[in-house]
Backbone:
């Protein structure tokens, strides 16, 4: 199966540091404006998932969710979680480290589209 999300070695290193400090983690990407559309990292369970969210996969054992509206725009796109220097203006737990998570994207190939991992839609 073709995963919908992956991560760079740099992102994986940050996730490992955050897991050591905070324990299990989760990610959510909303459809908000500005930094609201950036991936945010939380301690698992600190962000409440509801009927407007979709689980698109996992990165380094961390569930990655996206708002269903946002997913409609991104469903034909492979996402790669990465990090970049700079403090974002979100509630994501990596912000005090002077870095922030970002998404890099590319369209799926026709072959990949025919073999995508399923998503999980949540009910309120």
Residues:
């Amino acid at each position: 199966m073709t995963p919908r999300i992956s991560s760079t070695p740099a992102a994986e290193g940050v996730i490992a540091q955050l897991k050591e400090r905070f324990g299990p983690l989760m990610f959510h990407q909303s459809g908000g404006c500005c930094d609201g559309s950036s991936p945010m990292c939380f301690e698992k369970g600190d962000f409440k998932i509801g009927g407007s969210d979709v689980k698109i996969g996992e990165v380094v054992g961390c569930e990655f969710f996206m708002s269903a509206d946002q997913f409609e725009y991104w469903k034909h796109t492979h996402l790669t979680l990465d990090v970049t220097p700079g403090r974002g203006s979100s509630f994501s737990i990596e912000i005090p480290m002077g870095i922030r998570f970002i998404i890099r994207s590319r369209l799926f190939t026709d072959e990949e589209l025919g073999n995508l991992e399923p998503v999980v839609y949540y009910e309120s």
Summary: The chain has a mean pLDDT of 92. Strands lie at 5-7, 25-29, 39-43, 53-59, 62-67, 77-85, 99-107, 120-121. The longest strand covers residues 77-85. Residues 99 and 118 are 31 Å apart (CA to CA).
